[in-house]
Design a protein that fits this description.
By secondary structure, this protein is mostly helical. It is built from four helices and two strands; from the N terminus they run αααββα. It has one domain. It has a two-stranded antiparallel ribbon.
Length: about 110
């Protein structure tokens, strides 16, 4: 996808999240948190700051697994997934990182909403 396409789809996704969750416009961190909660599969609940960071890590690994950077190593006794880096992630500029993650988030939610 071109950056303009990614940004347009990102705005549509943000609006959908605003409507569904009756919230402010989510940034990338909020989207990663939502994906982490979805991937954990325990539903919405109170999470500690550390758990929120871990949820965003789960989301990042899950998204980057689509590009074969990570693979699911397994689930621990508490039901939390653990990922293994299988291929070095190239050095992207901040803008490239943001566009990549937005693109992967958009694709992730497209799969859920279709």
């Amino acid at each position: 996808m071109k950056p303009s396409e990614i940004n347009a789809k990102w705005k549509v996704l943000q609006q959908r999240i605003v409507q569904e969750f009756d919230s402010d416009f989510p940034d990338l961190k909020v989207m990663l948190f939502l994906i982490g909660v979805q991937e954990l599969g325990k539903g919405p609940k109170k999470y500690s700051k550390r758990q929120k960071e871990e949820l965003m890590h789960i989301a990042t690994c899950r998204l980057l697994s689509e590009m074969d950077f990570y693979e699911l190593e397994g689930i621990d006794q508490d039901g939390w997934p653990h990922w293994k880096l299988i291929k070095a992630i190239p050095s992207y500029t901040m803008l490239e990182q943001e566009m990549l993650m937005k693109s992967l988030v958009v694709s992730y939610f497209e799969d859920i909403y279709t």
